[in-house]
Every structure is written in C-alpha cells, then in structure tokens.
Amino acid sequence: xxxxxxxxxxxLLLAAPAVADDPSDADKALIEAVQAAGGxxxxxxxxxxxxxxxxxxSDKDITDETLKLFxxxxxxxxxxxxxxxxxxxxxxxxxNLKSLTRLHLEKTEVTDGGLAHVAGLENLEYLNVYGTKxxxxxxxxxxxxxxxxxxxxxxxxxxxxxxEPLKEALPELEIVPDFKKEKERALLSAERSYExxxxxxxxxAEKMQDSLAAATKAAMAAQEAAAASKAAEEDVAKAxxxxxxxxxxxxxxxxxxxxxxxDVSASDEFKAAAQESAAAAAKVAAAAKASAExxxxxxxxxxxxxxAATKAAxxxxxxxxEAKKKFEETVKKSVxxxxxxxxxxxxxxx
Length: 350
Prior knowledge:
Elements: H1 2-15, H2 25-36, E1 40-45, E2 48-54, E3 76-80, H3 88-91, E4 102-104, H4 112-115, E5 126-128, H5 136-139, E6 150-152, H6 160-169, E7 174-176, H7 179-262, H8 268-349
Parallel strand pairs: 2-3, 3-4, 4-5, 5-6, 6-7
Antiparallel strand pairs: 1-2
C-alpha cells in the first residue's frame, strides 16, 4: 500500500506543470527594465516565478514604445496598462506572452484592431477593456480564447447583439455588464414593481373608502353634537328666562308682604296668605335657578363634546384627503410602471 501511495505521489509531481521558484536571469532583466520604464514588476508568489507587471500607477508616460520590453518575454502572468497611452500598435509586442493570464486595457486608446493581437493569448482568463473604443466587431477576436472567464466592457461600444454570439462561443465566460441579463432583470424588476404598485392601489382604494366612510360618520356626529349643543343652549335660555320671571315674582310678592305688614286694616289671615304666596314664589325661583344651573352644566358638556366631535371630523377629513392623495399618486405611479413594463416587453419582443 505504501509503495502504491508513493508511486501515485510521484505521478502527480511528474504530471503537474513545472513552475520555477526563482525568476530567471531574463525575468530579472525584464523586472529591472519595467521598473526603469516607470512600472512595477515582481514575482507572482514565493513558489510561482511568473511575473505580474503594472504600469497604471506610473508617473511616466507609458506608450507603445514601452511595450517593446515584452517582445521576447514569455513568463508574464499579468499586465496592467490601465490609463496609459498604449494603442493598438503597442499590443503587437504582447503576442508572444502565451502565459499571460490577466490583461488590463481599461481607459487606454485600444480599439477593435488592437484585440486582434490579443487573439493568440491562449491562456488569457481576464480581460478588461472598460472605457475603450472597443465595439461588437472587436469581440470577434476573442472568440477563440477558450480559457477566458471574465470580460469587462463597461462604457464601450459593445452591445447585447455583440455579447450574445460571444457567450455562445464561450459558455463559461462572464461578461460585465451582461446586457441581456440586465435587460431581463430590468424587465422582471419592472413587472414586480408594477404588480406591487397595482396591489398597493387596491389596498389604498380600500383604505381610502374606509377613510371617507369614517370622515362622513365623524361629520355626521359633529353635526349631531352641534345640534344637541344648540338645543341645550336654547333650553338654558328658557330656564334663565323662567328664573328671571320667578325672581321677579319673588320680588313682587315680597313687596306685597312688606306693604301688608304696614297696612293695619289687612287681616292676619290675608297677611299669612301673602307670606305663604311669597314663600311659594321663592321656592319656585330656587327650583328654576337650580334647573338653569344644571342645564348650563349640560351645555358645557355638550359644547365640549361638540368641539371634540368637530376636531374628530376635521382629523378624519384630513386623513381621508391624505388617503385620496396617496391613492392618486400611487395610481399614477402604477400607470407609469405599467407603461415602462410595456415598453420593455415591446423592446424584448423586437
């Protein structure tokens, strides 16, 4: 068993691609040349001597002439030329970099013609042409890069019509942005947004009806409270009038009693009857006053209730108005979203 395991291990070692631990003299010379030109270059990893090169942070002009450094190189893993002055002509010096895995060309002057020089980089896995003049025609040059896994085409002339044939040719390739997927996502998002808005319209319609019903009920309650308060005020006015009349009667009868006391000709029976009449009048006046006071307290209660009902009616109307406004806004939003969805659907079917 041990001999079998050892044999398998040896097989794996022999089968694995050989990667030198230390850069060769040629690679060391290339590192020095890159640094002298204003770039950065270093070994990819401690156990991987392939080189990673970057010019995107250089304070010097990086041009097509700079790329002549790579004319005879063959051990470069990645090159970053972002924002440099490199053009199509310079990319011809990269054609021998068969080990090149990552290439940054974003914000350069590279066009479709430049990608023709990239077509032979058989190990390329990552290509970034963001912000260049690449179009659908340029994508034809990368169809043969079977190891390509990620392609960035932001702010280029690439369209969905150019991406789809490339995706068919390279099924494992991820293109960013993927215009077809974005279009599908936009369509799905528009459909969901429209459906959500339609549901919201239904819900708000019910709420608006409830709010209007509540406002109507509150308005009727306010009217009833106002009527009750007015009726109570009228009762108080009548009670006050009765009280005034009773007070007047008391004053009058008391006056008669006082005069009878001075009248020596009046009999005692007549005087007693007058006093009884005055006492009865005073009792009636007191009862009228007590009734008026009770009615006044009731008026205060009715008035407070009326004010509360009026406020409730005002608040209910405000809530109903807000519900109506939100409903109308949501209806408009729903219509706009439906229009957008229809436009996207129409565009999808073209």
